[in-house]
Amino acid sequence: MTIVRILLLLGMSFSVRLVAEPMKVKLDPTAKQGTWDGWGASLCWWAAVFGDRTDLADAMFTTQAVRVEGELLPGLGLTIARYNAGACGWRKIGEREMKKSKIILPYRQMQGFWLDDRSSDPASGSWDWSVDAKQRNMLALAKDRGVTHFELFSNSPMWWMTRIDNPSGAPKPTDDNLSPAHERNFAIYLAAVARHAKDDWGISFTTVSPFNEPVSDWWFADCKQEGCHVSPGQQARVMPLLREELDKRGLEKLPIAASEETYYDHAISTWESFDEKTRALIGQVNVHGYQEAKGDRGKLHQVVHVQGGKRLWNSEYGDGDPSGLNMARNLHRDMATLKPTSWSYWQPIDGGGWGLIPADMQRGRLRRVNPKWHVLAHYTRNIVPGSTILTTAEEAVVAAFEEKRGRLTLVFLNDGDAEREWKIDLSRFKGEALTATGWITEPRERSRYKVLEKIALKGKQLDLRQPMKSVQTVVINGVS
């Protein structure tokens, strides 16, 4: 029996060696796919609940080690903050009042500034700039910590600008909910918020995004959040109005980002529906990553960036997997094929696996951090703004090169069920006496952004063994 067991063990070991064939990648410093703008997150809804927490601001927007609820976290170092101009208000307009979805939770009702239609003057009594204090406070904390890009975005126009006075959507999810009579007012609203933010908050928005998942058919009167279906035809009518209102307020250089569609395929069809005049109004194309493994990322990159000449961002991604491995898998798909120059997570703090830090949002209580936080840290801490993203021959490897600092960052994903061996050829890079540091996170084990003790870097050959279900980063210094 002992001999049989030994033979079985030898056979198992032999089969693993056959499966774990070394992954060979030869990096090319000339295979450049864009300069990285940064990593980000939306502030609503979490900042409306936790916007007075300086420890969370430190954890999100610096790379310091920060203690949150007793747990020491590596700061993410995000440099993009997305601010939501709310759509809710409780002031009546004559006999009209805001209609509320039956299932929307209070923390998802974002307060808007333009309370009624009596005056479009932001200094008048029709406007209240004191609302939404916590989200605005987190915006200021983000700026103090070095955030460089601020995006103003809208989930819905103010409730009284909608067809049925409901900022969650129309009765039918395929119907536009922005009233045609208020298309100009919606443009005024966003432009006024951008101008007021610059003058009174010290925040200069770098883009304004008027539509959120506009062609998706789930924004209806009893939706869980604010939302508004906006057909491509109505989008094409609103954007020139927004451009006019921004220009009137001296914001000629503030680009419009559109159309922030849910799926890559939605983004393609919306873009292709626009004529050249409409496309010219768009300075940046935003898309969300909720199509995950599906959708034609490559075609979107081609039509928008290569042919259209527009900067392309994945401005929102989220999923319910607390391990972070599904997030990493889709992030790598984006970097390999969509080739954006920015990537943002939706809600860093949210219920269950959706949050990097899970929370009871209604009671304002944080729970123990998900491994997802540490997975995302591999990318946000080490692939910094200004880096050149390099195309690799392997989707599981993301590479970024900082020429000024002589740093090459490699992030490896192994979401399989077996150990993986990497052989990375750096012979096309210059530099002598290269040094390397690294970290590993194993969401299903104990490693949480743990320093790698030994890295097998010999000359310009990196050999790496990566455990299954892990994310691993190696930063190589002295490269030119």
TrEMBL record:
The keyword Signal applies. Keywords: Signal. InterPro entries: 6GAL-like, 6GAL/EXGAL, GH, Glyco_hydro_b. Residues 23-253 form the Endo-beta-1,6-galactanase-like domain. This is Endo-beta-1,6-galactanase-like domain-containing protein. PANTHER family: ENDO-BETA-1,6-GALACTANASE (PTHR42767), ENDO-BETA-1,6-GALACTANASE-LIKE DOMAIN-CONTAINING PROTEIN (PTHR42767:SF1). It holds the Pfam family Glyco_hydr_30_2. Residues 1-20 form the signal peptide.
